[in-house]
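cache lookup: miss for this entity combination. No prior model stored, computing from scratch. Input as submitted by user K.M.:
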Amino acid sequence: MVQTLLKRAATLFAVVALITFAAPELSAQQVNPTESAVQEEQLMRALQSGEAVSGRITIPDARAGDLIKPDNKGWADTHGGTVKTVNVAAIIGMLVLLIGFYMYRGRIRIDSGPSGRTIQRFNAVERFAHWLLAATFIILALTGLNLLIGRAIILPIVGESAFGTLSGWGKIAHNYLAWPFMAALVVVFIAWVLQNIPDKTDIEWIKKGGGLFTKGIHPPAKKFNAGQKVIFWSVIIGGAALSFTGVMLLFPEIAGTSAQWQFYQVIHAIVAGIMTAIIIAHIYIGSVGMEGAFDAMGSGQVDVNWAKEHHSLWVDEKLAREGRAAPSSGGGAPQPAE
Amino acid sequence: MARMKFLCDADRCIECQACVTACKNEHEVPWGINRRRVVTINDGLPGERSVSMACMHCDDAPCAAVCPVDCFYTTEDAVVLHSKDTCIGCGYCFYACPFGAPQYPRVGNFGTRGKMDKCTYCSGGPEADMSQAEYVKYGSNRLAEGKLPLCAEMCSTKALLAGDGDIIADIYRERVVTRGYGSGAWGWRSAYGETISV
């Protein structure tokens, strides 16, 4: 019995010795989770642009897995900084430019005076498409601009409650009027694209400054002069950019990640500011800036002398076409004065 | 006055979700909105850490900066709150927040979201303190009763600390010194532009 006891004591001693001396080697092979703990600073430094520190969550919405997205602050700064500056500078800059131009040139008159006879420049479809585009653009521009600078300009005047209500309706108007705007853009494109393709006449027109800066200079032009072609293509390209980015903003699921939404939003806001400035100039020349210009879109009928001075080649083409056709009924092109 | 902050000690957080449940229950937060959530980083790997995240009530809050209707305001305790009456649900605050705090209750046409909802540091909104109107819109107002946010009070390991920024920074610093390690005051650099150095 003592022998069994001794044998067991020896086995026990051996096992304990083995564990004691083997243990340090074991722990050296173990992982120390504390030392390999993820550090916030490490993760933040390793982030590329657009990335987030993210992990596993129990919420079905995958976006909740992003713990920290540092780029979001960057978008907030861009929105309040660059985007706002571009918009304000473009609009104020254009207004200053137009005031300066008006003081230098005044209202551009019909040099030979109005003749009292008219020819048709734009038909009902063209005018309808233009005015639908124009009216929707103005409301879209104002409601959009309100989201950017409204709180600095309008909020102090009407107070928070009224401004919130106004902006709420403005947002709804913006979202719904976008669709007739896009429809009108398509119609305008189809109606006028062929007549807006640049050609040699435009080079001559540009060389003479379009006659904008000197009285009595009237370079020849077809239906649309080079200045109008710039407006047309700006509207088409700018409008298309606004439409595409706008649709992305209307359907954020289609836009993709937050970074993509933010990109579309910045493009949308900057293009909108530039387009607004261009359209202000367009509105100027079509109303105050030039006598006889508004009639083109107002009634569709323009004074013959105005047409000869500003679109001489178009008048010639039109009269030649209608001269070859059967005698026109009342309301068509009257014969030029003998 | 105190400058209120949250600090989640990631080395103590055991992902029990008590903070999430406490907040949802206390304020009767609607389905689908998660004012507070627990994110687990490096899940399953050595060095896995969990962080409880809600609104950090930042200095210079980017949500307040981008809001088109200026519906945010900062209280005397430096808590960032907003008015659901003025909010137009445009979604900008969500894209500006580094922590994903703003949430929206609706999925409507053309990105209609409804009024934004987020962690209020248990201090309600612009309505009168502890009124029924305030409770319905923003949840309970514990700060007006002199209490701290319920998420931090219910934390089972005292991982989530809420209170004056200097005091909780000191608590965290003491912990890091005592145990010898700390993975950082998550979100403090983005929210307040500072870290806790030991």
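stored under new cache key. Chain B touches chain A through 54 residues (CB under 8 Å).
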